[in-house]
Model the fold of this input.
Amino acid sequence: MRDAIVFETHPAVRSGLERRLDAEPDVMVLDTFCDVDLFVEAVRRLEPAVAVVGLFGPHGVEAANGAALVAKPGTSVIAVVPYLWPETARRLGRGVTLVQDGPRGHRLAAEVRSPRPAAPSFG
Done:
């Protein structure tokens, strides 16, 4: 079982990300966040296998980079976008994997199930 936490400022998108991850039999969402500081603290304190950050609303890049700074080895920080935004990708720091995905979340699910820190996934 891989535990995950989710950050997204938009409530509907945050709920959608949570539902998508909960649909995976081997993933358990521990909590969701819309506050950057609380999310980063949770990454540090909970040491989840995966920290998923939606880049749909404001503060996503800040949350992803903050999580990557405090994440313990073995925690994957995955930022998910509906389509590739090159300017956003350039603002993500080391240790953050950017996953471009559609409404069904197949790429996100594959990266979250991955037992290793994920590699960038575009396309």
